[in-house]
Structures are given as structure tokens and as C-alpha cells.
Amino acid sequence: MVSYEEALQLVLENCSQMPPRRVKLEDTLGLVLSEDIFSPENIPSFDNSAMDGFAIRAEDVTGASPENPIPLKVINDLKAGSFPQRELRKGEAMRIMTGAPLPPGADAVLRKEYTAFKEGLVLAQKPVKKGDDIRLKGEDIKLGDQVLKKGTQIQEGEVGILASLGIEKVPVYPPPLVAIVTTGDELVGLSEKLTPGKIRDANTFTLLFQVKKTGARARTFPRIPDNKDEIRKALEEAKKCDVIITTGGVSLGEYDFVKEVLEEMGGTLHFWKVKQRPGHPLAFWILEGKPVFGIPGNPAASIICFEEYVRPALRKMMGFGKIFRPQATARMGVDYSKESKGRLQFLRVKLERKETLWAYPSGAQGSAILTSMAAADGIGIIPEDVTFLKKGEEIQVHLIHLPEDH
Ligand code: AMP
Ligand code: MG
Fold first, then answer.
1. 23 lies in some domain
2. How far is the CA of 185 from the centre of ligand 2 (A)?
3. Could you tell me the residue range of the domain that residue 367 belongs to?
């Protein structure tokens, strides 16, 4: 039997980053860069206008005002996407749109709102300084700059940069494919009849959502009977994936075969049973180099074991530097007496902010109770040696739902 800290360390020690791969830009949402990205280009790649107006020479409009407008000859229209045909000369203006390249000879843009028209001439009503309303070549990113660091997660800003640089294939840690093997003779599917003794399979779905939320890919093997051959068959197939999660069948029951089968298949057991509640029978193996999590079948225990062990492991495999949920210190809103002594307890809590952050148990804490899990904002950690928390005492909480979820 190991402690929570020991178990977590064993898991993380035995999970390593996925081998990096080049992935098509549009498929990189949420993935982590496996290399620094250096810019192959300047952005912008040419001097251009930041405004709709007129490309001019700043010295031509010195002293301009509404009372003293300075006429300039309009010689050309510059649209975004076109390129000026000739140089701008003294006393001339070229109509220019935002993003259009600045013609040679021009050194500023006079905004449209500072102009008037008379007899084919544009009248400048305001002076400008050299460089006004011009976006300079390389102003955002210079050729050769390190634009993105290894370890950065690709979101909209990053994909925008990569697209602007014309990078079609991006070096990333690919998302692991996770097999979800749900075992139990008692389980029936959604539309099946609940005959006496049967229950509906919840964990296939809870684990599927958790894997997806983590950003990994999932393959489900629902409702494998408590039968060694069937379990072995499912695991032989599941081991083609990068990670295996089994649920059910790791307790002490007569029909809990998952451990036995994994042993026969040559898996190395790193731990079984953790001094924690819920999720005491959690087991962890390495099978042919792949992590296998034996998660207990009780639905709330299954969700918590995923949160506390599998999610950090998957995030490590995906190359994240930050692999844990944010943690907050809250104060207990009520007295709470721990359910089992000598084990760490994961307490499902609702959080409320009133000057400080307060934590309240979100309902009954049994391993099978999903309603308190659904109502929880976080998982409070009550250490092994603590038996009682007085109202107002501090508790560390792993935040599983961020504030914007509410
Ligand atoms: P086990 O870990 O197989 O001993 O199962 C512990 C408890 O969780 C039992 O009451 C099972 O019926 C229940 N259970 C196991 N698997 C599931 C599942 N996929 N969905 C919902 N409950 C489950
Ligand atoms: Mg079972």
C-alpha cells in the first residue's frame, strides 16, 4: 500500500512525453510545441498603411490646418494586396487603404478624416510626422526571431502566428490515444433493459469526457464481462493504444480479474491500493512500455482517480509544463469529520467567495455518489493524519472547474 504522494510519483516517473511529430496546422488545437519556432519571414513583410488615407511625404504638409489646407495631387489608388507602380514625388499623394504597401518616397500616412477635396486635389488639414500611421516591415516579428517557445500550447494566437509565417506542419507532442476498458458483468448500455441486479455503465462516458477534456484521444471498449478470456482479448486490443485505463475489477472481489490478467500478460505492477478514499484499490502497471491505470468501478472514485492521477500523466505525455490543476487555499465552511482514518480523503467541495474562499462538502461523499461529484467545484485534500477539520480551518483544493464554467 502506498501513499497518494508515492503513487502519484510512481505514475509520473513511468510516463514520458510522446515522441514528437509534425502535424498539419489545422489539427494542432491545444497541442504543445516540441521545438522552438524561429521566424522564416518578417511580419509585416513590407511597410504598409495602418489606416485608410493618403500616402504622402510628411514635409509636404508642414503647417497644414483647416484654415490653411495644403493641396496635393492624387496620382494613384493603393488597395491592400496591390503594389505601387511608381515612386511618390514631391506634392503628390496616393490614396491608400489599410494594409496596402507604402509606395517608395512616402514616409507617412495622412488619415482620410484629416482631408477634404477640391477640384481633383486632396487638401491636407493637419500636419503629420514621418512614420505616422505606418506599420514597418518586421515591426511585429523579425526574420530569425524566436517567435514561439517549445512547451507552448497552441491556441488561437499561436495558430495565427504560425499561419502568418506559412508554417504548414508544426512540431508537436501528439495527443496520446487512450483505451477505456470498462469491465463488469452487472453493466448494461444506455438503451438496454435494467433487469434485476444490473446497473447502467456510467464510467465509459465519464472517462471518455475526461480523456477528451484533457485533449487526448479515446477508444472505448465498453462492458467487458468479468471473464478472464474476454478481459485478455480486450486488453490485447487495447495495448495498441498509448495508454490503457481499465475500470472495475481491481478490488478484492472473487471476480476482479483485471489484476490477474495483466500479470499473466507480463505487466509490471508499480502499485496496487493507495491510502486514500475514494479510490483505494487503484492500481498502476507498465505493460510493454505503456501505462495502464486500473481504476476502481465506483463512479465517483473513477472520476477522482482520473483527475488526480491520469490527467497529470496525460498532460505530461502531451508535453505540458504545468500538469496539475490550479490549487487554492480555502477555509472549511462547516465542521467536517473524516470518513476513514489513516487515509487521505479527496473531499468533493463547492466553493464560495465571501471575502475569502470557503469550501463546503458538495453532498454525500460515498464512492458511488455522482451527484456530489457533479456539484463539486474542486477536490479538497484532507491529509492522512488529519481526522477532523473545524469550520474556518484551511484546506487545499484542486480546482476542477474554472470560474468561467459557472
Ligand atoms: P468494482 O471496482 O468492479 O469492484 O466495482 C465497484 C462498484 O462500482 C460496483 O458497485 C460496481 O457495480 C460499480 N461499477 C463498476 N463499473 C461501473 C461502471 N462502468 N459504471 C457504473 N458503476 C460501475
Ligand atoms: Mg466489478
1. no
2. 7
3. 327-405
